[in-house]
Amino acid sequence: MIRVSFKTILIAAGVSLLCNQNTFAQSKSLVNTSQSPYVKLSSLDIGNVQWTQGFWAERFKACRDSMIPHLWNVYTDPKQGHATQNFASAAGLDTAAHVGPPFQDGDFYKLMEAMTAMYAINHDPKLGAELDKTIALIGKAQRADGYIHTPTLIDEHLHPAQAKAFEDRLNFETYNLGHLMTAACIHYRVTGKKDFLNIAIKATDYLYRFYKTASPELARNAICPSHYMGVVEMYRTTRDPKYLELAKNLIDIRGLMKEGTDDNQDRIPFRQQTAAMGHAVRANYLYAGAADVFAETGDTTLTHTLNLVWNDVVNRKMYITGGCGALYDGVSPDGTSYLLKDVQQIHQAYGRDYQLPNFTAHNETCASVGNVLWNWRMLQLTGDAKYADIMELTLYNGMLSGISLSGTKYLYTNPLSVSDDMPFQQRWSKDRVSYIGYSDCCPPNVVRTIAEVSSYVYSLSDRGVWFNLYGGNNLSTTLKNGQSLKISEQTDYPWNGNIKFTVNEAPESVFSMFLRIPGWCKDAKLTVNGKNAELADLTPGKYAEVRQKWKAGDVVELNLAMPVTMVEANPLVEEVRNQIAVKRGPVVYCVESAGLPKDAKVLGLSLSTNTELKPEKVVIDNSNITALTGKATMKNTVWKNQLYRDVNAKDVNTVNVQLIPYFAWGNRGHVEMETWIPVSK
Ligand SMILES: [Zn+2]
Prior knowledge:
The strands form 4 sheets. A 7-stranded antiparallel β-sheet has the order 2-9-10-11-16-13-14. Strands 18-19-23-22-20-25 form a 6-stranded mixed beta barrel. Strands 1-7-8-12-15 form a 5-stranded mixed β-sheet. The longest helix is centred in the N-terminal third of the chain and has 21 residues. 33% of the residues lie in helices and 20% in strands. By secondary structure, it is of the alpha+beta class. Bound molecules: zinc ion. Zinc ion binds next to α14 and α16. The site of zinc ion has 6 residues, from α14 and α16.
């Protein structure tokens, strides 16, 4: 491929002269809403927050030392991940056929995004060199017209007659392009280098031209639409108006073709939808992308649907862990009729209202990541803490459960209950595995999320700085008025609700600290330099504003009472009637067989609501965890191939039980596990 200058590419692509270097350099944030006209909050630059100690520092260290190196080895190994080999073949540097799923390019871009986010913090030259080398390879693979998708490009070399772009929606081309765009924008913001961004500009321009001329069927674009977020981020990076036009068009043309399905959320137009439906990853990516389009356009017909769907998910379809997608496979609750030929299949999907099975829950890890992406954008639009609550819940539970504590083993699905007595297998392993194979989309997704959590901790508005999530960190940023702010945070959150902030450098002008009081916290205390912050509203599920002139040495202490709580579900969730789940702070707990006496079965366990469960620090696979210990009731679990039997109230005894955070299950070998536990008297 002929190398051309960045300026030449811009001119060739018809990019406005507004896309000068200064405009490009304005923000270095993960999701750049610094110029978005319809958001309340904007993000800090990547690298403004450095983890120092505690929970996220530990996860981040595992991300640096094992998660990213492990995935890099997987994806560059021709016998496993195949990704770099596929790009080499697409570039004509290798003769190997394409291996792996069609969406593997996109998964590899996610890993590159994780590496970039890590590089923003540690500036590791080895990471930088790996990225540079890989970007050069990807550039060689890209077609002159901007198209890039290794299965088709390799076919062009090996089987030219078969090679056709955008012929099959299940080729995931737009999914791959979306992740290319997102990773390239972040790479440009972090490194200032334009090589990856140039590739993404050519690809986005290709997509723009494609949609100008595509037939309605070819224009179907609903499969895992990461590209809505990607295209909007390209607009935010380049300010090229045709990218925003493309993003709007991608949503507008959904639901306009006859072949739409509930599984892909395009049976009916987006603006007419009132409930979450279909494949949960695809759904959550759609909602996140629509929120991005609103941030730039203010189109309230989009937020009308987003608000209805959010309430449907949170109040009727989301697991207690923040997980989304109850069903492996099923039938759309809505796109059906008595004529069987009209029944629409769904898979890895949201089910009916209150349909939340435990053993067979799908709960793909990517759907949890999508839930975080969606709620982060809703938080930026509104400043409403209810979205930060869902983000926090999902990060600590449904997202983190997708990766082992060691950082090298993964779950594709996240069931809430596992029993060896269940006499059937499901498609995906309930033990953690080092490579998921064809469905390896989740590992790089969860790893990029862990690498990027520091970007979600704070937000900025004209009035000041917003504290969304808590964890030991140093903040060094610039407020909207251009003045510098440095704060250090010490805490053992989420194991302890005491959080101390010390101002190390304060701006001249008055500004507000908006401290999030989580919705789960019934008793919060806030002091400034040892005195109660009497004017602050400490209502759960709100941000408490403290507005004053700050100076270096000021200390803010937030104490969030974090008792063990027992949670019940709406009785319409029939799978968990008369059962309880245990939470402490944002962390959902479970019991696994490794926390029970030898030979005890988790299915025999029941808990009294009066049971005292004491926090206890333990180490599991080198990770610091707070477990809960107490007494539980165990009954005979020997069932002799029976479906029913008479109750025998005498056949019970008391056992010691250890509950551990749900995200930490399955790290002590093969286990049985249960999250919802029957209530004993
Ligand atoms: Zn996935």
